[in-house]
Every structure is written in C-alpha cells, then in structure tokens.
Amino acid sequence: MGLLVAGAILEGLLRPGVPDRALTVIVAAGLMPPLLLRRTRPRLTALMVFGAIGVSSLAAGTHIPDLDVTAAALLVPFSLTRWGTAGDIAVGAVAVAGGVMSAQLVGSDGLGDLPAGFGVLSAALAIGAALRFRAAARRRELDQAALLERERLARDLHDTVAHHVSAIAVRAQAGLATAHAHPGAATDALHVIAAEASRTLAEMRGMVHLLRHEGRTGGPGIADLASLARPGVGGPAVEVEVLGDIAGVPPLVSTAIFRLAQESVTNARRHARRATRIEVRVAADDREVWLRVLDDGAADEARPDAAPGYGILGMRERARLLGGTCEAGPGPRRGWLVTAMLPRTGTVA
User: Fold this and answer.
1) pLDDT reading at 147 higher than 90
2) Is it the case that residue 282 has pLDDT exceeding 70?
3) pLDDT digits (tens, 9 = 90+) for 171-194
4) Confidence bin at 311 (pLDDT 50/70/90)
5) What percent of the chain has pLDDT over 90?
6) 3-state DSSP call for residue 327?
7) Measured between alpha carbons, how far is residue 247 from residues 166, 255, 314 in Å?
8) How do the residues of the chain divide into helix, strand and coil, expressed in percent and rounded to 5?
9) Element spanning 343, H or E
10) DSSP labels for 210-279?
11) Which of 28, 108, 298, 331 qualifies as a cystine partner to 335, CB 3.0-4.6 A?
C-alpha cells in the first residue's frame, strides 16, 4: 500500500499535463489507504473510493484523479463480488457507477469513454464473482472429503468397538450359565453387563446401518501392509518395511495406517510419472506410529490435492480425527513424499 501511495505522489508530481496537480495528487494518494479495507468492508471501501472520485471530479470540473496508478481502484469492484454480501454488492455497485459517471460527465471526453469504463468495471466484477464461485466449490469439496473420511472412520470405529463389546457379551453370558454354582452378587452384575452389552451392540448396528451399505466387518491393519507389495511389472515396484513393535497398536490406528498407505500407493501408481519404485515404511514406538511413502517419479511431478473419493484431503482428515498429522509434497530429491504420524492411543477427536 505504501508503494501505491508513493507511486501516486510521484506520478502526480512528475507526469506532465496533469490537471489540478495538487488536488489530483491529494485525491489519488488518499484513495489508496481505503483499499486495505476491501476484504472486510467492501461496501465502505466502494463508498469511500468512488465517492471521493465523483465528488472531487464534480468540484474541480474535470476528471480527478487522472493518473495511471489509480487503476488500483479496480480492486474495489473485484472485492465487492469476491468478498461482499448481496447488500454490499448492490450498494457498492451504485457507488462505483455513480463515481464513474460523475468523473466521465465532467471529463474532457464527456460520456464517450463511459462504455469502455463500464466494460472494465464489469470485467473486474465478473472476475471477483468467478473466484468467489471457485472458492465456494473448493470449500464444498473439502467439506465433502472430510465427511467421507468421517464416515470411513466411523465404520472402523464401529468394527473395533463391536468386537470388544461382543467379547463382553460372551463373557457375561458364560458367567450367567455358571452362576448356579456361584450365586451371589455376581449374578446381578452379570445381568447388568449382558443387558448393557446387548443394548450397545444394537445401537452400534443401527448406527453402522446408516453409515454403510456393504456388510464388511473388521478392517485391514499394519500386519496387512505386505499385501500392498508389488513387483516392478506393469508399474512401479512397491516395497514395504515395518519397524518396531506393532503388536500392541490399537485396531483403529492400525487400520488408519493401512488406509493411509494404501491411498498413498494408489496415488503414486496412478500419478507418479516415470516412477520405478515406491517405498512404504512404518515405524512404531511406545508413543507414536509413523508412516512414510516415497516414490522416485519425476521431480517436477504435480499431484492433485484431492483424488476422487478419498485423496490427500481424506488422509489428512483421518489423521486429524485420530490426533495425528498427514503431510504430502515433493520428495527431498525427486518424486512425491507422504508422511503421517498417529498417536499410539488413537483417541478420536
């Protein structure tokens, strides 16, 4: 903004043939600071900028300010459709039209340049509206990816919880079957356990019926990563390495690691140009589980932010829900690198 103000002052002072030089410099320099409000207060910015142009032009009897640097005022109509509300756009458009017409009316060319002026302003309005639509579509994609991943996580959560609750129910029913040999307080406790476990299973089955349509039970985990390994035939070879103690990793975390690795490998095989090798490495300690997937594709390879259905956005959402992180970007030398960290506890956020 300081550069725009300085530019307006220098152009007004050095450019020959500027009408009402002092007023032109003051108005041109004064138009720049309100542009800082264009994102948060687009209506006020339009009233201030184009109101000043119209009033100063009518007062001086000529087009004020007549400087090239004031093309920055095109940010105002752009901001109206990019960040403004419907009310901002309506009021701001009137202010813009009024300021332009006032300046053109008293200018040396009269209204001859008015169609061209409105054409440029309309283009700025259209660009702002197009970027707004694109940003809204992008937000919808992000929300959809997050919702899809929450649904997948809910499926895995159901499978894990249902497994444990089923074990509780079996133990409780076995206790009831032998309660005649050990009567007492244990009988009542076993009744409570059995009833609560059965109720929980019923509720979980109802929830999963709404969340999914297939009958899958259970999910793959870290121990199943070997199934992703592939020889270098018809595509890049996939090499899998697992380090550390994975025996005690909770099923929810184990399944998440598998899903993240699976999606990363799928993306690499689909998008990595001239790749010959994909490395999948999982390391676990007593606190965290780390995933690293790296291919040796072309260094300039661009990858989409979101693959259909799941993609990097879904991977990040799944990791975030489990209290971890997931990042994707160019590799240190070439190819594409995906890294993820999940806490071993796997607490769902």
Assistant:
1) no
2) yes
3) 777 777 777 776 665 676 677 677
4) low
5) 21
6) strand
7) 21, 13, 26
8) 60, 10, 25
9) strand 336-343
10) HH-SS---S---GGGGGGG-B-SSSS-EEEEEEEE--TT--HHHHHHHHHHHHHHHHHHHHH-TT--EEE
11) 331
CB of 299 closer than 8 Å to CB of 333? yes
- Residue for token pair 């990363």: 264
Tokens of 114: 């008015």
Q: Estimate the crossing angle of helix 114-177 against helix 75-83, to 10 degrees.
A: 30
DSSP symbol at 62: S
Chain centroid to CA 244: how far? 33
Tokens representing residue 278 in the block:
């994909």
**Which residue do the tokens 């476990």 mark?**
197
Residue where the block lists tokens 């990793």: 249
DSSP tag of 291: E
* pLDDT band, very low/low/confident/very high, at 315 (cuts 50, 70, 90): confident
Task: Specify burial of residue 183 (Cβ count, 10 A radius: 0-12, 13-18, 19+).
Answer: exposed
What DSSP designation does 78 have?
A: H
Q: Which of 134, 135, 132, 48 is nearest to 83 (CA)?
A: 132
Spell out the residues 6+ positions from residue 98 whose beta carbon is closer than 8 angstroms to its own.
50, 51, 54
Question: 292 and 337 in contact (C-beta within 8 Å)?
Answer: yes
CA distance 257 to 157: 14
Domain ranges for the chain: 2-112, 145-211, 222-343
Q: Whole-angstrom Cα distance, residue 86 to residue 152?
A: 38
CB contact burial 42-71 (16+ within 10 A = b; e otherwise): bbbbbbbbbbbbbbbbeebebbbbbbebbe
| CATH dotted code for 222-343 | 3.30.565.10
Helix (H) or strand (E) holding 202: helix 185-211
User: Is pLDDT at 224 greater than 80 in this prediction?
Assistant: yes
Token pair, residue 72, equals 């920055």
Maximum mean pLDDT: which of 72-81, 96-105, 152-161: 72-81
Q: Which two tokens stand for residue 68?
A: 């090239």
